[in-house]
Each structure stands twice: as structure tokens, then as C-alpha cells.
Amino acid sequence: MTTPEIWIVDDDDAIRWVLGKALERAHLPHRLFADPQTALAAAKTHPPAVLVTDVRMPGIDGFSLVAALKEQHSNLTAILMTAYSDLDAAVQAFQVGAFEYLPKPFDVNDAVALITRAWQTAQRPMDRQPAEAATAPPPHAPELIGSSPAMQAVYRAIGRLSTSHATVLIIGETGTGKELVARALHRHSPRAQGPFVAINTAAIPRDLLEAELFGVEKGAYTGATTARPGRFEEAHRGTLFLDEIGDMPLELQTRLLRVLALGEFHRLGGRELKRVDVRIIAATHQNLAAKVADGTFREDLYHRLNVIRLTLPPLRERQEDIPLLADHFLKRAAQQLGVEPKRLSPDAIACLTHHPFPGNVRELENLCHWLTVMAPAATITPEDLPETFRPSPPQPAEHPLSLESPARHLSPATATPLKTLRETQPQTQPQTPLQTAPHHAAPPDATQHPSPSREPAVPPPSANATTHPTLPDWQTALAATLRTLLAQAETAPPATPLYAQLREQFDTCLLHTALDYTHGHKQRAAQLLGVSRNVFARKLGRHEDDE
Length: 547
Prior knowledge:
Mean pLDDT: 78
Structural class: alpha/beta
Strand order of the largest sheet: 2-1-3-4-5
Number of strands: 14
Low-confidence stretches: 125-142, 398-471
CATH superfamily of the largest domain: P-loop containing nucleotide triphosphate hydrolases
Largest sheet: 5 strands, parallel
Distance between the termini: 48 Å
CATH topology of the largest domain: Rossmann fold
Shape: globular
């Protein structure tokens, strides 16, 4: 009997090599394939237990590969990788029966952990349900925008719910896009061909809300000259979205509970029992558990609604998406106004990235519309932004590039404090701003596949990419200190070459300074340094291990 294997299918040599080495270290049996055709041919005699495949490949894409293999081997556990991570990709991944979907770039350790979990699942075939039949993805429509980890979690949830009729409760701050998520849940559900009906329970007077929800019979009250259906009847065989459900009056909560439990109700002033087949999606920015505790929300209704709970991240927790969102809103505003779209300068994007956005995505959308009207030039600079979006002038750090601390990683023979220029030698030339060295691209990281159209999530803070605030002439100071270290090495050679020691010390200082500057945010630190997050984490981990 052949040993079940993990197959990696990707036309990118670097991805295959990295994952192959990682699986080898984890002692997991695996095979590597450069194209899906070869994998399909091999599967005829020896199918994989776990398939990890890229989505975009020449000839056959990852979705088709998974679908083809699942036709032959229904218990296949599949993981789809893609650098083009959006809602459609997530939904389609789960619709073809994927175990999980892995957006690029990814952390190798996280990828191995996911593959290991899939491998363990594949060893228990009796515990697994038959795969859902693959269905064609729904037609493309405007969707949620963003590829941040927070939004990836939302996409996964929508994808997993794409075959479900379950009630969903969406929790999120004002302006986070709760209705957009509700529409996406409907559009990617078995009820997609049915109606989507939305009602804001907080925007309708309480004495009219009952009639809006359940309908009215003729003569039910003064002015009711005709009978009309309510929103529940309109949403029959579709989805009813109840926005701001936390503001619903208590007396209506009782009637809503009956509809959720039995699917039946009476119109206002009517005797005929109405039956409907409606999926409920509710949303609120309030803490319903707290409202239950203070008696303003029924506990039984809360548990009826809280079947699937989906929490939306505020914009401040998905800053990487701000450039994409801003570009989208600027183009849409320009189209609405019949003008050429404007674009944000890197400095303007930096200002927006650091803004807390208490109004979330809606606040950003309104700002982009305002800028389309009010900004005088095609390129928007920080000066064009409203004052509340402009950051206060940055305070210079006490030691922007500190070389004054003792060398922590040097041997005792070379552990001499690095001194400033004033302490080492007289000034021989005027101080000048530190000039950046010519940019050299870092070696490509195997797991880094950015979309060509995407801009960096956190752009450089300065409009002038070649200059920085004036610093002490640290290079001259460093040269003087190095002369001292070289003299010491000449008389007492260190155990580790001096070059290696100093290079490690500089890397450590640079990495920790960047991490401190970004308050521990590794992604931002890596972007500011111009390296991938994986490279940054790997170097940081090595230096921390050394410590």
C-alpha cells in the first residue's frame, strides 16, 4: 500500500522549493509538481491525500484542478493558494470543496501549520462529509474591497456560508460595511436568485415599523385604504436584512421571534396566517449581550439571531486596505461627477493610513468625494486634505540612528562603546543631511507575490525619497570607532571575524529600531525597510535567538 502524500502544485519554482523544504523539516511525505497536467496524470495511479495548489497557472487553473481531482477522489483535502485574494476567490475556493484558502504572501510556518492540520484531517476520512457539488461562481458584481488579514477572515466566513441558509448576525462599528457584507452573503448563497430586502429598523418610526415589516390589511387604521405586503412577504424565498436590530422596540421583538421560529405571522389588522421562507441577516453596532443584561433586548431573540456571528473589523485595523479603498472611491466619485479621477500622493496616503477613521469606510468614501470636488490638482497632497487628516509635525527622535550604545554582540576585546563625532575627532566638514544609498532590490522572497496593481500599504512618510532629517555625521564617527576596533583586533584577534560581528550588530539595531518605530507592527516595519515580512521575521527571529 502506497503512503498517502501531500502534493504541492505551483508553477513558481521558489514556492515549491520553500514549501518542499518546510515539509521535509516537518517530516511530512510530499511531492512537488510544476504544472497541473502532470499532477492530474500522476493522480490516476496514486492520488494525493492533501493537495496544495496555486490558483493561477498555465493551462488549468487551481479551481479546475481541485474539481477534477475531487471527481475521482471525493475525500481529497485541498488548499488553494492565490496572490489575488478577494471575495470571489474565497467563495469559489470553498464552493469547489477546498479545505482552506491561503492568500499570498504567507508565512511559511503558518502555511506548514495549515498543511499539517489538513494532513491530520485527511487521515480521518470517516469523519468527513461528502464534498458539496461544485457550482459555478455567481456573476461578478461590486464587492467588498481589501486584502488585509482582517478582511481575509471575512471572506473566509462568507465563503463557508455560501451553501448555508443559517441566520447571521453581523457586528461592526458604524460605517464598516455591514450591508455590503449582508448583500455578499445573499449573492453567494443558495438564495441568490431570490430577492434581497433591506430595512433599517432605527430609521422607521416605531408606530410604523410593524406595518413595514408585516404588512397592512385594508382598514387596519385610518388611512389604510389598500392592503399591502410587508418586507417579510417581499423577501419570500430570499433574504431579509434587518439593519440596526438593536434599536427594535421590545413589543416588535416578540413578533419577530415568532417569525424566526415558525415562519408565520399576521398582517397588521389581518386574520389570515401568512407563511414565508426567509433567511434573516441582522446587523448592529451595539453590544446586544449588554442590552440583554439591562433588559432592553430579549434574550431568546438574541440567541435566535446569534446563530452565526460575523464581526467586521474597523478601518483602523485594516490600514493596508486604505490605498485600495481610496483609489476605488476616487474613481467612483470622478465617474459620478464626470471628471478625471484624481490620485493620492504617497505623503497623502501616509496621512490617511495614520488617521483613526472613527467613521470607518464611510468616512473615507465621503472624504474621497470631497477631495474630488475640492482638491485643485490631479495629484492630492497632504495640503489638500482637511485639517483633521493632517498629522501634527513629527517630533525628531532623540537618537534616530543610535550608534552610541555598547556593542552587545561583540567579544570583550571589541566591546567598545561607539562614540559620536564630537568625542572622536574635530569637525572637518559641515554636517549634511543623510543621503540614502541607491536602491537595490532585496532578493525575492519565495512567498511574496504582490499584485502588480497594488501600492504599498504603508508608503514612505516623506515626499522626498532621497533625503531624511539632518543627522549627526555618524559615518565619520563610525569610521573613527572602527579604527579603534581594528587596532584592538590587530593585537587581540576576536573569535568571530570583526566584519561578521559588526554586520550582525547593525542588522539588529536596524530591525529593532524599525520594530520600535512601528510599535511592534512587523508588516509596517518590513514595508518601511523595503523587505518582505517573511524576510524581516526570519532575520528578527535569528537575532532574537542569538540574544
